[in-house]
TrEMBL record, chain A:
PANTHER family: ATP7, ISOFORM B, CATION-TRANSPORTING P-TYPE ATPASE-RELATED
Keyword Lipoprotein among UniProt keywords: no
Family affiliation: Belongs to the cation transport ATPase (P-type) (TC 3.A.3) family. Type IB subfamily.
Organism: Chitinophaga pinensis
Keyword annotations: Cell membrane, Ion transport, Magnesium, Membrane, Metal-binding, Phosphoprotein, Translocase, Transmembrane, Transmembrane helix, Transport
GO terms of biological process kind: copper ion homeostasis
Topological type in the membrane: Multi-pass membrane protein
Location of the protein in the cell: Cell membrane
Listed name of the protein: HAD-IC family P-type ATPase
GO molecular function per UniProt: ATP binding; ATP hydrolysis activity; copper ion binding; P-type divalent copper transporter activity
A GO-annotated cellular component: plasma membrane
UniProtKB/TrEMBL annotation, chain B:
Name of the molecule in the record: Cbb3-type cytochrome oxidase assembly protein CcoS
Name of the gene: ccoS
NCBIfam families associated with the record: ccoS
Pfam families cross-referenced by the UniProt entry: FixS (PF03597)
Domain of life: Bacteria
Amino acid sequence: MATIAVIPDTKLQCAHCGEDCPDNKIVLENNHFCCEGCKLVYEILNENGLCDYYTLNENPGQSQRITVRKDKFAFLDDKKIQQQLIQFQDDNQTHITFYIPHIHCSSCLWLLENLHRLDAGVQRVTVNFTRKEALVIFRQQETSLRHIAETLTSIGYEPYISLQDLRQKKPRIQRDLVYRLGVAGFCFGNIMLLSFPEYFSNYGYSDEKMNHLFRWLNLSLSLPVFFYSAQVFFRSAWGGLKTGFLNIDVPIVLAIIVTFIRSLTDVFSEQGAGYFDSMTGIVFFMLVGRILQDKTYQGLSFDRDYTAYFPIAVSVLKNGQEVPTALPDIRNNDTLLIHNQELIPADGILVKGNAIIDYSFVTGEAVPVHKATGEIVYAGGKQLEGNIEILTIKEVAQSYLTSLWNREELRAPENKQVSFIHMLSRYFTWVVLSIAVIAATYWWAHDPSRIWPAVTAVLIIACPCALLLAASFTNGHILRILSRRHLYLRNADAIERLATIDHIVFDKTGTLTGKAEATISYEGPILTPEKLMAIGTLAAQSNHPLSKMISSFCGKDERLPVRNFRSIEAKGISGWIEYNFIQLGSAAFIGAENNTSTDGSTVYIKIDGHQAGRFIIRHQYRSGIQSLLQQLQHQYSLSLLSGDNDAESAYLQKIMGPSASLHFAQKPADKLNYVVSLQQQGHRVLMIGDGLNDAGALKQSDIGISLTENSNNFTPASDGILEAAELIRLPRLINTCRNNRRIIIITFIISLLYNFIGLFFAVQGSFSPLTAAILMPASSISIVLLTYGLSEWMNRS
Amino acid sequence: MSVIIILLGASLLVAIFFLAAFIWSVRNGQFEDNFSPAHRVLFETKPAETTCKSGNACTNTNCKSRICQHN
């Protein structure tokens, strides 16, 4: 909700959360607090001798200004819900993992793992810091799930339990690749070591019998690499071939198989030691690259749909009783009780209460809407004032908002462009195959006995592993550089797609404008402090968000008498304050001329029948947005899709440039359709948004980036998550992605040089295992170093 | 020369031991969270405070507070 940023007159910091204290009234001993909530947490910790929490880190807490409703976790008493959340239970103990977004420092770790001092029923808490999860083991006879959740909440660590927890288990991280890497590394190292006598056998340092033993040992050590570690590449190549697509893994697998067979025949026919060291080395390095590239951000989730946003249960009224009910069990004609600040989970008819609903996350409208009894309220909105009751008309899965996820476009398998690396590898493969054929025909004419060694050697060299290494290591580095700048991409493909975009679509609310802040200003003849106070007091009578902003701007005096207060829906308010009759509202309500165009909502003032001035409320654009948009419009075509009205269109057109197309009052489906129409015109679209209303467009666009104020917040499914403060550095981030391609090509050219040296020996049929053993690690290691150096250098700050 | 074969066997066994140790540590989840264990060892396990810290003449024997207003 929009509020005014109040400049604190004191610079006191809250001892709990570190935020500025609005006044110095809330004190305990020598500690000041910003709110009663923070003070309460301090008291609880102090009572239990847990004040070390504050000595480990400064102000480790989270502001407690927004209090949590008392019975919020009542649903945890429900056996059915419990069973779906609990991981393990026997007669004595229960295991459950809570996701706690606030976990951020060692104080959190310490406090949570000392939870048994607050609740004796808790046996042990183990925090997984990277996943922000706490595994709680407790005795169900002594405490309950609900009590633990409430204890956690009381000390500022509210567990986040959403509908998604009911549906699916979180995917475990891939350990499989790491095992394969371990085995490959073990075999590679030992084969290297055992190959040394062979390399130097020409110098008379070894004896034949020993060499024989070493060869067989090498062979047996290479088996796990070929049959276990390299399986990843076999599978990927086979998958590509089945769909008729020649990906980069196909030539690599070909080279691995040829190397292995050649080495086997060498050893069995006692002609040489084979290339076991090269083969295992290649597999090892490629696995390292793949793991580096597939690094995932465990704390972030890129696949959230509405289920992660929705609560797990709501209160259903049955015979006047509040019954916590799991969301999937809500049926039509149930009466739901929606508490203050809670989400409406299903479409329904408002039957009781004063509904002021914030749809900004769902529709992008910045100003909350007022609904009267009998009107339809849609799922996804957040109730802002008091409790309301609604009668459901649609089940959760069929609601307006959730139906967006069931659209055909979003269900269809993704048909994204193919990486240029696969194209490059295809040319590369054909070139090397033709070299192999030429070498074969040459030796067929001159010395047929050398066809086999020459052709196999060429095919061993043909392995585009240098290209794969260059690509995977560069991708890995670039992902890391981007994450240092707070852009977290889902995977390496996203880098390439971000590099090639030509059209950027912005959402307005929450993206160009900050989420929380709006500014209010007064225009017109100067008002006396008494008049201002009177206006503020009148505005304080209304719950309308604009009124609230005006009253906190003007101040209010509760002692002033207010008479004949009237509020006219969607128009304005009026009333007598002491001896003045004041009217606040729209131009039509006041009878003022609405001839000036402003970039925001305007509230006109009339005092005793005379028009005084007006308040202008603007949503504050993020600082630096103007220069960002001016910079971007030279390179890309820009669009704006806003769920809001077009009040600020003139201003936006000015800063986004004349060629930008602006669309207002866009529903989520309109946004999605707009992105589709851009793509049909051949544009490659980057969508930047933040709310559920952008979710369809984010998913449909070539690359969708969702903004977040802090990475704990909900973000809709997307290809990347960007911290909001870094949005102004967007051109640089895109540039980093463009460098990615350059670096891959540069390193590839350098690796080609190594290949030429290898080919020089290979076509002559004199490619010795020693040359291979030197060339292979030398090229791999130099490529790894080069990609690292180049990515750091090209993206230095 | 047979000593080399013995040494070879021994070195391979040591290497296999380390491979097994690596696989065990991955399976055990030791690489999943590299923040908590490093900080956990630094926490002192002080005995839970049993007496009033406030310095007031507090009569409540269970009071552990620094700011208590008992008495």
